[in-house]
Each structure stands twice: as C-alpha cells, then as structure tokens.
Design goal:
Blueprint (H helix, E strand, L loop, with lengths): L4 E7 L6 H14 L4 H22 L7 E8 L3 E8 L26 H9 L2 E7 L2 E9 L5
Antiparallel strand pairs: 1-2, 2-3, 3-5, 4-5
Helix pairs in contact: 1-2, 2-3
Length: 143
C-alpha cells in the first residue's frame, strides 16, 4: 500500500472560508496527482459536512474545525473532521424517503443521504468534547 499524502487545515467553522478551503484542496490534489473526479466527488461530501458544522454545530458563529485529508494513490481519499460543537452523529440521522413526493418530505437530511451514498466509509465518534467524522471514498478501477 502506498504511503498517504496529507493535507491538514485548521478552519474557523464558517461558510465564508469554505470556497478558499476547497480551492486549496484542489491545488493540493493537482500537486499530488489525485484524480480530478475523486477530488470533485470528495469535495461535494466535505462541503455538505463542513456546511452542516458551520450552520448547525456553530449556528453561523464559527468555532474550531480541524480537517485532515489523506490521499492514498492511486484513487483513495480519507478525511477526518473534528469540531467542538454539540454532540451530533450524522451517521445516525434518519434515512430520507427520496421516493416520497416533494411536498410530503421533511426538510433536511438530503445532504447526509448524499454522503452516505458516495462514501465508502462514513463513521462518527465523540472524543470528549469533540465530534469526529471519518469519511472516505475510492474511485473504482477503470475497466
């Protein structure tokens, strides 16, 4: 197995800093030959998770968020997100009935549904006063 190449970021838990974070992640991906399709799909998952932290855990006021991304060539990304918001396990969120008519659906939950469907691994644990979410994705080998 190849050694991992790491990107470490400390964020302030606001939505305003997400575009520069994702620009940095894309540049890092280009520098380390991460497949563009993997960076794009992984970025969508992280966008959902980090936006939820900013809007729900920190209620738009910000707070510490640590992001560790590991690339294992040729096509695997893994991220560990740590925040100090109230305990919340996104992996335990209720499943969304995507077949229900829109007017009958509950608001929310589609982002977590999206992450569940893209991720190879989606795990949560509470470490003292810190939420930890682990998410990973591997692109399938080309036929």
């Amino acid at each position: 197995m190849s050694p991992s190449i790491q990107l470490l970021c400390s964020l302030n838990g606001t939505v305003d800093e997400l575009p520069p974070f994702f620009e940095r992640m894309e540049v890092w991906g280009e520098e380390h030959d991460v497949p563009p399709a993997l960076i794009a799909s992984f970025g969508l998952m992280l966008d959902e998770l980090l936006t939820n932290v900013a809007m729900h855990a920190y209620q738009g006021k910000g707070g510490p968020v640590a992001v560790q991304i590991d690339f294992i060539a040729p096509a695997h990304l893994r991220a560990l997100l740590r925040d100090e918001g109230p305990a919340y396990d996104p992996t335990a969120a209720a499943e969304v009935d995507v077949n229900a008519p829109i007017e009958e659906r509950e608001i929310g939950g589609l982002g977590v549904h999206f992450v569940r469907n893209l991720a190879d691994q989606f795990a949560y644990r509470r470490d003292g006063h810190v939420n930890e979410v682990l998410v990973s994705r591997t692109l399938p080998a080309k036929a």
